[in-house]
TrEMBL record:
HAMAP family: GTPase_HflX. Residues 199-365 form the Hflx-type G domain. CDD domains: HflX (cd01878). This is GTPase HflX. Monomer. Associates with the 50S ribosomal subunit. It holds the Pfam family MMR_HSR1. InterPro entries: G_HFLX_dom, GTP-bd, GTP-bd_M, GTPase_HflX, GTPase_HflX_N, GTPase_HflX_N_sf, P-loop_NTPase. It comes from the Bacteria. The lineage of its organism: Bacteria, Pseudomonadati, Pseudomonadota, Gammaproteobacteria, Cellvibrionales. GTPase that associates with the 50S ribosomal subunit and may have a role during protein synthesis or ribosome biogenesis. Keywords: Cytoplasm, GTP-binding, Hydrolase, Magnesium, Metal-binding, Nucleotide-binding.
Length: 441
C-alpha cells in the first residue's frame, strides 16, 4: 500500500545539521526567520553534525529517533530541514516520522507562493513549484499496476504516476510559453525606454536589507515593506525625476538569499532580467547585519549568474542609525562614488544617494537662454514636451526667450528630429556646444 502524505500544519520541528563539506553552511537564525515568514510556529530546533548526509534519511538513525520523539512530544505536523533533500529522502522521512517533511527549497517556494500578487509572479512561482514537484512523484503511486506487455500481462493502460507526469509536463510547457510572452513584453518596454533615453536603476540586495523602504523613500510610493524575508516578490517600477538626469526608472526587485535554489533563479529569470538590463545597480546592504560580508558575496553570486556582475554598481549601506554612523559617500581613487551610507527608515543620507546617482548617470547639461523666432514653433513644442523649459518671455521683435535646462543627448535628439543644427541656435549669452560636437567647432 502506498503512503499517503499527511496534511501539513503550523507546528514545526526544525532541523539544522553542520555537514563537513566545502560549501558555506546555512545560517540557523535565517532559517528560523524563513519559517516564521512562511507562517510556521517553530517549537524546537534540532542541531547535529555529520561528515556526509545519510543516504536514506539525511540524518542518522539516532537523530531520526530523536525527531520521532519530538514530533510526538510537541504534536508537530511539520518537520523542516535547513538543507536540500532528495525526493527519496523526503519520502523516507515522511514514512518514518508520519508527518509532512519540507526542505529549504520547498520552504522558500511556499513563501513565494504566499507573496505572489501579480499574474506574472504567480506564473513564476507555479513554474518553480511544478519543477520541484516533478522530481517528487516517484513511488507516489506504487499501488497502481504498471503497464506490461504480453498475453495475460497487459495492464490497465496509463498508470496514475504516468498521468501525473504527463499533466505536469503539459502545465510546465503552458507556463513557459506564457512567461516567454511576458519576457517579450518586458523587452519591448526596455527598448522603448532606451529609445526615449530614460535610464533604469534597479535595487538589488539580500532579502530584508531594506530595498522596499528605500524605494518608497525615493519615489514617495507605498510599496509593501515589512521586517520579514521576501516581503517583496513582484517587481515594482516607478518613474522619478532626478537632478542632472531628468526622468529615470527605479525598479524594486525580489531579494536574494544564500544558496538561492537554481530552479527559482530560472523561474524568475524574466523578472531578474530587469536588473540585468539596468544602467545602474543599487546594491542595498544591511550595515547592521553580523553576516554582512557573507550576504554581499551571495548577492554577487546571483548577479554573476544572471549576467549583471559587470554593470555599474553603488553599494548602499542601509540602517546606519542602528550602528551609530553618520551618512557619507565613499569614493574610489578617481573620485567616483562607490558606496553610500544612509538610513532609508529616517531618510538620513538619501540626498547623498541621489547625488551619487546623478554623478554616475548624469551627463553634460545644456543650460542658458535660448532665442526662438515665431518660425521655430516645432522646436519650441518639442522642448516643452521634454519639460526642459523653466520660463519664457517675449521680446519686442516677437521672438521668445526660453530658459533652457536639458541633457545634451536629449537636445541633440530633438534638434535632429526638427532638422536644426546646434550652431544654428541663438543664445542670449554664448553656450558651449555638447562634448559630442565639440570637435566640430
Amino acid at each position: 500500500m502506498f503512503f499517503d502524505r499527511p496534511d501539513s500544519g503550523e507546528l514545526a520541528v526544525l532541523v539544522h545539521l553542520d555537514i563537513s563539506s566545502g560549501q558555506e553552511p546555512e545560517d540557523p537564525r535565517e532559517f528560523e526567520e524563513l519559517v516564521l515568514s512562511a507562517g510556521g510556529d517553530p517549537v524546537t530546533m534540532v542541531f547535529g553534525s555529520r561528515a556526509r548526509p545519510h543516504a536514506k534519511y539525511f540524518v542518522g538513525t539516532g537523530k531520526l529517533q530523536e525527531l520521532q520523539e519530538l514530533v510526538i512530544e510537541h504534536e508537530a505536523q511539520l518537520v523542516i530541514f535547513n538543507h536540500t533533500l532528495s525526493p527519496s529522502q523526503e519520502r523516507n522521512l515522511e514514512q518514518a516520522l508520519e508527518c509532512r517533511v519540507l526542505d529549504r527549497t520547498g520552504l522558500i517556494l511556499d513563501i513565494f507562493a504566499q507573496r505572489a500578487r501579480t499574474f506574472e509572479g504567480k506564473l513564476q512561482v507555479e513554474l518553480a513549484q511544478l519543477r520541484h514537484m516533478s522530481t517528487r512523484l516517484v513511488r507516489g503511486w506504487t499501488h497502481l499496476e504498471r503497464q506490461k506487455g504480453g498475453i495475460g500481462l497487459r495492464g490497465p493502460g496509463e498508470t496514475q504516476l504516468e498521468t501525473d507526469r504527463r499533466l505536469l509536463r503539459g502545465r510546465i510547457s503552458t507556463i513557459e510559453k506564457r512567461l516567454s510572452k511576458v519576457r517579450t513584453q518586458r523587452e519591448q518596454g526596455r527598448r522603448a525606454r532606451q529609445r526615449a533615453a530614460i535610464p533604469t536603476v534597479s535595487l538589488v540586495g539580500y532579502t530584508n536589507a531594506g530595498k522596499s523602504t528605500l524605494f518608497n523613500r525615493i519615489t514617495g510610493s507605498d510599496v509593501f515593506a515589512e521586517d520579514q524575508l521576501f516581503a517583496t516578490l513582484d517587481p515594482t517600477m516607478r518613474r522619478v525625476e532626478q537632478d542632472d538626469i531628468g526622468a529615470m526608472i527605479l525598479a524594486d526587485t525580489v531579494g536574494f538569499i544564500s544558496h538561492l535554489p537554481h530552479k527559482l533563479v530560472e523561474a524568475f529569470r524574466a523578472t531578474l532580467e530587469e536588473a540585468a538590463s539596468s544602467n545602474l545597480l543599487l546594491h542595498v546592504i544591511d550595515s547592521a547585519a553580523d553576516e554582512r560580508m557573507h550576504y554581499i558575496e551571495q548577492v554577487d553570486e546571483v548577479l554573476d549568474e544572471i549576467g549583471a556582475s559587470e554593470l555599474p554598481q553603488i553599494r548602499v549601506y542601509n540602517k546606519v542609525d542602528l550602528i551609530g554612523l553618520e551618512p557619507r559617500i565613499d569614493r574610489n581613487d578617481t573620485g567616483s562614488p562607490v558606496a553610500v551610507w544612509l538610513s532609508a527608515q529616517s531618510g538620513a543620507g538619501c540626498e547623498l544617494l541621489q547625488q551619487a546617482i546623478s554623478e554616475l548617470l548624469g551627463e553634460e547639461i545644456i543650460q542658458g537662454e535660448l532665442i526662438l523666432s515665431p518660425a521655430d514653433g516645432r522646436l519650441r513644442a518639442r522642448l516643452f514636451e521634454q519639460n526642459a523649459i523653466g520660463g519664457e518671455r517675449y521680446r519686442d521683435d516677437g521672438a521668445s526667450v526660453l530658459t533652457l535646462r536639458i541633457p545634451a543627448s536629449d537636445l541633440l535628439r530633438i534638434l535632429s528630429a526638427v532638422d536644426v543644427q546646434f550652431d544654428q541656435l541663438r543664445w542670449v549669452e554664448d553656450v558651449e556646444p555638447p562634448q559630442q560636437l565639440a570637435e566640430n567647432f
